[in-house]
């Protein structure tokens, strides 16, 4: 039986001036990386505050690691959750070593573990530098090290790769993959959708305080109902010859260039289309299925709700 680290049921948070989130229902299985995406003001930050227990829901219920966050003040429970905010801020005059040691003491971590984490995030050479001399990317990495203190079972990460160069981003996701192997559950907010696509198990899309889509990328592709795209390589001079038969199979030719054709068809017609292409024999040299990207899916769900 799959165990969920996060369960939200009919959760709303309304303020006198506005409705931050309304009727939120979703769950995150243990060991899963769930991407939380949406435009600014969609309700992502409020959702994280609710999960952390920093604000209480107006209606609905939350179960975080099997507990209601408002009832859990124990060190054990708090250590089980790590949080990296979008804008990391620490004492400007303290060194990296002093900062990580301070937060380690709050979480009851031994000194060697804090230094191990600084090495893990690539800051061992900057331990004795003051925080105010750190670059944006270094500050993010220090924030990640702080979030990993206490060996959390649940990580909440808000724009964690902001300010990181490509190499540092890859290193960040290497760390995340290792954590997931250990069963850590991760809820990650990011606007870099192309980066998320190869990393996430599931995606929750928010718009105007509501969840408008949630599930694996395949689930979202099904929900979106977009046509399937195929790129076909044919023998020299044969592209025009097979174009009409493909159109007779209800395919739409979106691009034809030399030996290459790009077509779209309904997802339900995929197997029929592949069988037809197979019947064309050696004329067809290669078929490449082009999946709908997360960027395209996000645009669909945002547009459908009138963003």
Automatic annotation (TrEMBL):
Pfam families: ABC_tran
Matches recorded under Gene3D superfamilies: P-loop containing nucleotide triphosphate hydrolases
InterPro entries: AAA+_ATPase, ABC_transporter-like_ATP-bd, ABC_transporter-like_CS, ABC_Transporter_VariousFunc, P-loop_NTPase
The entry's keywords: ATP-binding, Nucleotide-binding, Transport
Domain ABC transporter residue range list: 6-233
Domain of life: Bacteria
Keyword Aminoacyl-tRNA synthetase: no
Protein name, as recorded: ABC transporter domain-containing protein
A GO MF term: ATP hydrolysis activity
PANTHER family listed in its UniProt record: ABC TRANSPORTER ATP-BINDING PROTEIN ALBC-RELATED
